[in-house]
Amino acid sequence: MDAKIITTSNFPVDKKYYIYDFIDEMTRIVFGYVYYSLGTNNALNAMQIAMKDFGELGITIKRLRTDDAPEFTTTNWSNKKSYKVKERSFTTFLSRNGIVHETTPIRSPQSNGKIERFHQHYTKLFYSKDKKLNQNELQHYLNKYYYFYNFERHHSSLNSKTPFQKLQKFLTK
Asked: What is the pTM of this model?
């Protein structure tokens, strides 16, 4: 799971948005959800929707990797010298649902490489879009892309299969 910032200077949107994206490491199936702001409540809401969406495909989330952003982590740095541990509702939710929460080391996006690589697709996705999108239009546009990515796009890392074809292979074993 990671958040992608979509700004008016880089993308055809009417204001700044944040997308919480989720990618399954085995199948590469991806889902994402658009919000007006970052924060624990939005991250938690996105997590709940992702659990439902992945669950409908037969995928149970057992482990979640995030960066060290404040909405995900239990560590608050103060004065860059010491820290205090503060339980977040996001972490509590994962724990109560039997999901192991892994955080990547600070300043190491390569530790969550699959989702970071996926975010590079956004630059190409919006390249020819000329209309400014609002939140609902942006979510609709992204949902169409997620469908293409999950069900039609063949991935070299999956032996030229789509993520859904890879998932079907796991489900038939």
From this structure: 0.85
